[in-house]
């Protein structure tokens, strides 16, 4: 622990509704230099095929994240005491040029990685994860634990367009960013375009755990398998808020009935503890479809859950003083 680590504004001195909005009331900093974990916004939804609005996610997640406190109530983790964490702001994006948008996101995440920090991002639609992986997995493929209602491994949309929020993980596998045999997707459900829609993903080696299987097995059992699939190698964690049931997270682009409760999602993320996580994100929070900020609060809370896991891994990797 270092007394030099950034700390959230003390809520007993400045109330949570006051002041500038940053992730978890941490200082806003200009770069990731000196950070262990960089909280970063990616306000871009250029890959959205239906209900747009995830570009507004980072701002509302910041707002709701003012409710996060210092200590995880189950694990006892104090993320701001064991890791240096701050809000590095939003990446520069281009809302009207898809390829330039992807390039800017990749460059922004690459700068965080080059500074030696782990990115914990708030999207943005799920296509944002592709350029994040281009930066995080530049030197070697990574495994991935993927919470989602959708596999996001489709091929083409609207003719021959390869880049939408329904295609990022097919592109990531084609580009050698993911080791598909170390990828597990959890919570997949909902109607699909055609019977064989997931055949390509399964043929690559991805393990798809459909929602119905999760209901039969439960979080602990499923996460034991997920951890074994990811193994000890570098692993990315991506959390699409639409994995949660729309009754608890309605503010998203592609809602699907029959999803996780927020409590089940929290339980699963806590069971990521001990993996080698090289980056993580929470995507697809779309405030225009939200009710009273409940989806943004779910997103902010899942970021805090992920942060606690990341901070413990930072602490574990740090050489003793
Ligand atoms: Mn998704």
UniProtKB/TrEMBL annotation:
It holds the Pfam family Arginase. Binds 2 manganese ions per subunit. GO terms for biological process: putrescine biosynthetic process from arginine, via agmatine. The keyword Hydrolase applies. GO terms for molecular function: agmatinase activity; metal ion binding. InterPro entries: Agmatinase-rel, Ureohydrolase, Ureohydrolase_dom_sf, Ureohydrolase_Mn_BS. Mn(2+) 1 binds at residues 148, 150, 152, 240, 242. Belongs to the arginase family. Agmatinase subfamily. PANTHER family: ARGINASE/AGMATINASE, GUANIDINO ACID HYDROLASE, MITOCHONDRIAL. This is Agmatinase. It comes from Mesorhizobium erdmanii. The lineage of its organism: Bacteria, Pseudomonadati, Pseudomonadota, Alphaproteobacteria, Hyphomicrobiales.
